Amino acid sequence: xxxxxxxxxxxxxxxxxxxxxxxxxxxxxxxxxxxxxxxxxxxxxxxxxxxxxxxxxxxxxxxxxxxxxxxxxxxxxxxxxxxxxxxxxxxxxxxxxxxxxxxxxxxxxxxxxxxxxxxxxxxxxxxxxxxxxxxxxxxxxxxxxxxxxxxxxxxxxxxxxxxxxxxxxxxxxxxxxxxxxxxxxxxxxxxxxxxxxxxxxxxxxxxxxxxxxxxxxxxxxxxxxxxxxxxxxx
Length: 234
Fold this sequence. Notes:
- This protein has 234 residues and is an alpha+beta fold.
- The chain folds into 2 domains: 11-101, Phosphorylase Kinase, domain 1; 105-233, Transferase(Phosphotransferase) domain 1 (Transferase(Phosphotransferase), domain 1, Orthogonal Bundle).
- Helices cover 45% and strands 20% of the residues.
- The chain has a 5-stranded antiparallel beta sheet, covered by helices on one side. Strands 6-8-9 form a 3-stranded antiparallel beta sheet. Strands 7-10 form a two-stranded antiparallel sheet.
- β8 (151-154) and β9 (159-162) form a beta hairpin.
- It is found in: Nucleus.
- It catalyses: L-seryl-[protein] + ATP = O-phospho-L-seryl-[protein] + ADP + H(+); L-threonyl-[protein] + ATP = O-phospho-L-threonyl-[protein] + ADP + H(+).
- Its EC number is 2.7.11.1.
- Belongs to the protein kinase superfamily. BUD32 family.
């Protein structure tokens, strides 16, 4: 998901097959659009994958459905692993749409940039991030887009909720887990460098809570080194 907002749009112009009356487009990424509104009298979001015109129609349909199913499975699997995610309300396969809970709160990115947390709250949050990523990885689930924009603090108790499993997949390889961690580190470095080395606390918590931390963190060191070399070379 992206952070860009957009005005409300006529439903049939954007998403044939689903009723978007009363919904507002809030973000659009490379793979999907996200609306927010009310579904069955509760705040909800609808995430719909859209077709890619450059792909053959039958291939596009097959890929879209495959990725939709994988995202739904990943959300459900994460919850079974003990990782809070939005509650799923309904899946409309023909329209490639997922109806889910609208988590009331702010993103971790917003909380950190707005300096909304005291020192204890910050420490608790960073440890929660490390723990949740460890639970995902030990359960064989790679998020694929770990950023502080894809983590929410649910009001009023600031429970950490992971969102946007659109790039997730199942894998137990240490290399893939390491890349997941590296993406998260880059997110902290690019968006929150002014707050110091926050990611160190995340890694410490990951190490404490993961049963398979050793091969993953060894690979992470390698991935980090490759990333730094690419940065220096350009």
